[in-house]
Amino acid sequence: MFNENDYIVKMQPAVKKLLAYLKSKEIEFTPTDGKFNNVIFTSKDKEIKISHHSFYRFSGIACVYKEKGDHLIEAIEVTDEMFINNFMTPIIKLHFNLK
Are 73 and 67 in contact (CB under 8 A)? Predict the structure, then answer.
């Protein structure tokens, strides 16, 4: 059976790297709003809430595909770090106008 808390713990190495970067940009992290099960990112003038389900990839993308020639593709597993770096980070950076 899927355990959300175990999965959140599993994601922590990748999440901690993102949080360190955001902290350097003066963006604070709140792990839950308690009511709707969102993570919250806050700067002095903006806030974004992202559901745990989306942020921690409870049912998100598991692999991407790479072309390997004529009619051949290779499945590449999306790691936690890839997911955070390639999917979540751009959303947060766009919202807070980070480069």
Answer: yes
